[in-house]
Amino acid sequence: TAALGALAFGIGCAPDPCDTEDAFPGTYFIRSQSDVEGLEGFLCVTGSLVVGSMPHEPDSTGSGIQEPFELSVGVFTLDGLEDLEIVEGDVHIAGNTLLVSIEGLSGLQAVGREVRFQKYPRGDLIIHQNGLLRDLDGLSSLTLVGASFVVSNNSILNDIDGASALERVGWELKFLDNPELDTTDIQDWASDKAAVGGLVASGNG
User: Fold this and answer.
1) Strand, coil or helix: 183
2) Pairing, β 91-94 against β 125-128
3) pLDDT at position 117, please?
4) What are phi and psi of 33, to 5 degrees?
């Protein structure tokens, strides 16, 4: 409900942004900078947000990476999306060969609407195979991931402190095969995160 959504995001009695005209209905795909511009001003995406390619079908269960998938060369930054607060489905940022920054997501508070105590709740955040992405500084407002938070195969990613506000994760934190990301740093970062399924870290620096 709108009231539950408002309370969940700490915004008192303000209208639920997903029940207003500022919500994009359904899943939104970003494969070019013009696609970024098309989402400017929206506060909510009621489906999933796909930047680049899809590691798995939006809103399907589980957070496994299905390869191969098509690489995207059309997105450089997500600047202009600072108004976006909620994505009710999944967020996939994957297969972007030229994406250098996700700082445009600095207003994003939640992926999924709530933590559900089940293996495959809705709301994966997957950051996979982005060859020029060095940090997660665009996730400074993110406090909730309803399902799994997966960071994998990002060849030069070396800093995840930008996502330090994250508090609750409905299933697992997964950090896989990020060669420049130190495992000890991952463990320290994850120590205060309430992840129902715990931390999985493998193949990192």
Assistant:
1) helix
2) parallel
3) 55
4) -65, -30
